[in-house]
């Protein structure tokens, strides 16, 4: 099993209890750089995997495959953690690694432990309160939508379809005992609650 572990923005006190538990109990821990290695050090002796910031797609694909080969060998034998700064599902190295793993090693189970992202870190450190809809961009085209407080999920999906979104997930009460996740569009309900979310992908 391979688990992407969010380490937060860089403050060792901002690792979650879950992240610490996974790091301590993994058979192998990898990280993409020195800062992540230092954050992990109190809990595990991590090995750095190189993910250089280059644009040559052929070289990148070769490096991603090499790293996936190394990770897969260990993940088939036990639990492997990949610790990274921020959150593993937001603009992260782990998202790329996960794609390669799914392509070449679909038998390896994948999971993620959320971490405090740069988005919420920014709000905390700059005393910014986000109280209405906002956009996060890295300069690329918008490809995703996360609609919070989705009390009318079915109608939200219909609206998003007119905007070019084609894949949807309904989630409610995440990480609670009553968690509900629906991945089939036709099963998304008419009504949700305050803790409901619709995710759309173009």
From TrEMBL:
<keyword id="KW-0489">Methyltransferase</keyword>
<keyword id="KW-0169">Cobalamin biosynthesis</keyword>
<dbReference type="InterPro" id="IPR012382">
    <property type="entry name" value="CobI/CbiL"/>
</dbReference>
<dbReference type="GO" id="GO:0030788">
    <property type="term" value="F:precorrin-2 C20-methyltransferase activity"/>
</dbReference>
<dbReference type="GO" id="GO:0032259">
    <property type="term" value="P:methylation"/>
</dbReference>
<dbReference type="InterPro" id="IPR003043">
    <property type="entry name" value="Uropor_MeTrfase_CS"/>
</dbReference>
<keyword id="KW-0808">Transferase</keyword>
<feature type="domain" description="Tetrapyrrole methylase">
    <location>
        <begin position="1"/>
        <end position="140"/>
    </location>
</feature>
<protein>
    <submittedName>
        <fullName>Cobalt-precorrin-2 C20-methyltransferase</fullName>
        <ecNumber>2.1.1.130</ecNumber>
    </submittedName>
</protein>
<dbReference type="InterPro" id="IPR035996">
    <property type="entry name" value="4pyrrol_Methylase_sf"/>
</dbReference>
<dbReference type="InterPro" id="IPR000878">
    <property type="entry name" value="4pyrrol_Mease"/>
</dbReference>
<comment type="pathway">
    <text>Cofactor biosynthesis; adenosylcobalamin biosynthesis.</text>
</comment>
<comment type="similarity">
    <text>Belongs to the precorrin methyltransferase family.</text>
</comment>
<dbReference type="GO" id="GO:0009236">
    <property type="term" value="P:cobalamin biosynthetic process"/>
</dbReference>
<dbReference type="InterPro" id="IPR014777">
    <property type="entry name" value="4pyrrole_Mease_sub1"/>
</dbReference>
<dbReference type="Pfam" id="PF00590">
    <property type="entry name" value="TP_methylase"/>
</dbReference>
């Amino acid at each position: 099993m391979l688990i992407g572990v969010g380490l937060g923005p860089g403050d060792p006190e901002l690792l979650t209890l879950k992240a610490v538990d996974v790091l301590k109990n993994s058979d192998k821990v990898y990280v993409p750089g020195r800062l992540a290695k230092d954050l992990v050090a109190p809990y595990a002796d991590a090995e750095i995997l190189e993910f250089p910031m280059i644009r040559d797609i052929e070289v990148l694909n070769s490096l991603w495959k090499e790293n996936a080969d190394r990770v897969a060998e260990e993940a088939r034998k036990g639990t492997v953690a990949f610790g990274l700064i921020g959150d593993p599902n937001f603009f992260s190295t782990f998202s790329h690694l996960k794609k390669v793993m799914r392509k070449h090693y679909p038998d390896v189970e994948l999971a993620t432990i959320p971490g405090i992202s740069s988005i919420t870190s920014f709000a905390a450190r700059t005393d910014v309160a986000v109280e209405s809809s906002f956009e996060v961009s890295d300069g690329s085209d918008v490809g995703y939508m996360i609609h919070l407080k989705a009390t009318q999920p079915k109608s939200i999906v219909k609206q998003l379809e007119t905007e070019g979104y084609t894949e949807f997930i309904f989630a409610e009460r995440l990480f609670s005992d009553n968690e509900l996740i629906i991945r089939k569009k036709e099963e998304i309900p008419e009504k949700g609650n305050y803790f409901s979310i619709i995710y759309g992908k173009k």
